[in-house]
Amino acid sequence: MACYAASEKGGDVFFPIPARSVRRSLRLPMFVLVFTLLLNSNCVSSYSSGYWDFTCNNSTDMERGKLGPQNPGVCSGKATHLPVCECGFKMLDSCFLNKNKMLEIEKGANDFNIPIIRSNRKLVASIDGGLHKPSCLVFNSAWKARQLEHEPNKKLNYPSPAGIQRPKSDEDIAFMSILELGQLLKVNLITSVELTGIFLKRLKRYGPVLESVVTITEELAYKQAKESDQLLAEGKYLGPLHGIPYGLKDIIAVPNYTTTWGSTSFKVQVLDIEAWVYKRLKSAGAVLVAKLVTGSLAYDDIWFGGRTRNPWNIEEYSTGSSAGPASCTSAGLVPFAIGSETSGSITYPASRCGVTALRPTFGAVGRTGVMSIAESLDKLGPFCRNSVDCVVVLDAIRGKDPDDVSSRDISFGDPFSVDITKLTVGYLEDAEMEVVHVLQSKGVNMVPFNLSYTVDSVQGILNFTMDVEMLAHFDKWQRSNLDDEYEAQDQWPIELRRARAISAVDYFQAQRARGILIQQVRESFSVDAFIGNATDWEKVCVGNLVGFPVVVVPTGFKKISDAPSNDTRRRTTITTGIYAPPDRDHVALALAIAYQSVTNHHKQRPPIDDLGPNDPIPESPKSL
Fold first, then answer.
1. Is the distance from CB of 373 to CB of 473 less than 8 angstroms?
2. Which contacts of 54-62 are long-range, i.e. CB under 8 A and separated by 24 or more positions?
3. What angle, 0 to 180 degrees and rounded to 10, lies between the N-to-C axes of helices 585-596 and 433-441?
4. 240 pLDDT exceeds 70?
5. DSSP class of 257
6. Where are the stretches annotated Disordered (predicted)?
7. Angle between helices 218-233 and 178-186 (to 10 degrees)
8. Is the Cβ–Cβ distance between 37 and 500 less than 8 Å?
9. Lowest-pLDDT choice from 15-29, 72-86, 557-571
10. What is the DSSP string of 82-150?
């Protein structure tokens, strides 16, 4: 068994309160490394008989912090007389064991557990990131047993923008919706090459200001744009994403470009993999213009190049690991972007940056070629100008991924054909009442609602699930002490060290508790959808553990606190969430479309670095 530095230093993740972590569900072999802390601790008990020696054979290097990939600190297996570490059993809440049983466990761990642990690790954990060898334990978020894999995909009835003309300024073009840009392309008012050039220019101008762009894929973008224009010239139209530029969160692999995962440890990594979601977008004719910032190893907004900023208030950070997709979409650097969520990394940055975004039903979008935190929690979803655009993007990327066992063909009805007057929609106490009133005025039956369940350890279940599964995917990284170079020492490093003390039994008990939560939420979900705060931590945890979708919609703005000037253009965004049961994404989207059809909050443009009189930005980053 390997040894680990025990220093206290302090992931697809944002945590708004001190309680952190929230991911993962049904994975890990049952031989979790339960004895790591037991067998490599400095605490001493009162034992005096013969014990097994689990001390490090290179402890000097370990103490000096010199362990690395070539010197991972393998423990010796020789038998000497050392006391059993009772404090290790205490960390596992196993103090009920008497001393003789502890000795028996130590010997059994050495003779039986450790060889299996090492064999499994060699088999599946030689490469970090969870890109290969997924668990055979699969979480299915569906509430209905009916299988939908063989149902034909129905063509959606997209609205056609009428009277669309090419704006005179590139700025106005940059803030057009996907369908509006598509209309310009179809009637030859602009080419994909021209459109790509507009967004590349904005990425170079504002990307460094917002610290939101990792790699501009200029050569690839122009190649794909030229191909899109050629197909249109031949009369071949691939759909509403044909020729539309976009960005990918930099945990999504694209050949010939770095996929850095936002981390110093992997910033030169090039993966010869085409992620499933990239393949789907490429086949739809979309044009990749940039790899956008992910927080380091998909945790919050800090990455190896800085910390991503909110375009509505540049002195504020974007929050959430899908920081780049949210910030860039908000600022008009891309028409849309693909982000991911394990525990808030879509909902939080979308809310902070004031963009419309969808966290879809778990399993709706395949994740092959995407860095994994927690296979039973990870989801990919779009950041867009509006909810109609979210429909367009989800329709293009949804469906069964043959290499992602958690993915499936969700039941996705046509949001444009939903009769919202036949829906009963609940609203929580923290719902934005403007949304309630607007939907009510459009004929929706709005009723007070409360999502009821008795499980009181929701946030802890999320922590256990996410951290254990994340550690399984980054076991080698931690064993090589690469966590010492992590960008924010109070984030993943501390959480993943703590995860070493979560036993297989307790991980599995957390999943059983998760099952109770899912059952109780299902039984209490007596409405077609409900409106509530999109960033309430408890709801973020529940939504991700259960796997139901939410659409984040901007609902207004307020003045920033401590404004340097009454004339400042900086604002704090206000948003809400529209939640629906699993596989009912189209219902949540239909309600969002109805709300946005009579409001314009989603059409407002952030100031970025044009803050107004008497509100200067000191030493703004230079453009690329």
1. yes
2. 54/1, 54/82, 54/106, 54/110, 55/82, 56/3, 59/3, 62/3, 62/5
3. 90
4. yes
5. S
6. 600-624
7. 50
8. yes
9. 15-29
10. ----HHHHHHTT-TTS-HHHHHHHHHHIIIIIHHHHHHHHHHH-SSSSS-SS--S------SS----TT
Handedness of CA 533, 537, 538, 543 (dihedral sign): positive
Residue 414, CA atoms < 13 Å, CB-side half-sphere = 10
Sorted by sequence, the CB contacts under 8 Å of residue 63 that are 6+ apart come out as: none
H-helix or E-strand spanning residue 267: none
Which of 141, 212, 345, 376 is flagged as catalytic? 345
Q: Where is mean pLDDT largest: 58-72, 128-142, 230-244?
A: 230-244
66 is catalytic: no
**Residues with Cβ within 8 Å of residue 175, at least 6 apart in sequence:** 332, 385, 603, 605
Q: Helices marked H in 413-572 — which ranges?
A: 433-441, 458-473, 475-479, 492-499, 504-524, 537-546
Q: Is 422 annotated in the active site?
A: no
Question: Quick check: is 249 catalytic?
Answer: yes
Q: Which of 386, 379, 344, 342 is closest to 360 using CA atoms?
A: 379
Confidence of residue 99 (pLDDT cuts 50, 70, 90): confident
**pLDDT greater than 80 at residue 392:** yes
Encode pLDDT of 347-374 as tens digits: 999 999 999 999 999 999 999 999 999 9
Tokens of 492: 């993943």
Taking each helix axis from N to C end, the angle separating 387-397 and 178-186, rounded to the nearest 10 degrees, works out to 70
Alpha-carbon distance of 365 to 546, in angstroms, equals 16
Q: Average pLDDT of 586-605?
A: 98
Retrieve residue 339's tokens.
Answer: 């982000």
Helix H or strand E encompassing 535: none
pTM value > 0.85:
yes
Locate tokens 């469906």: which residue?
A: 399
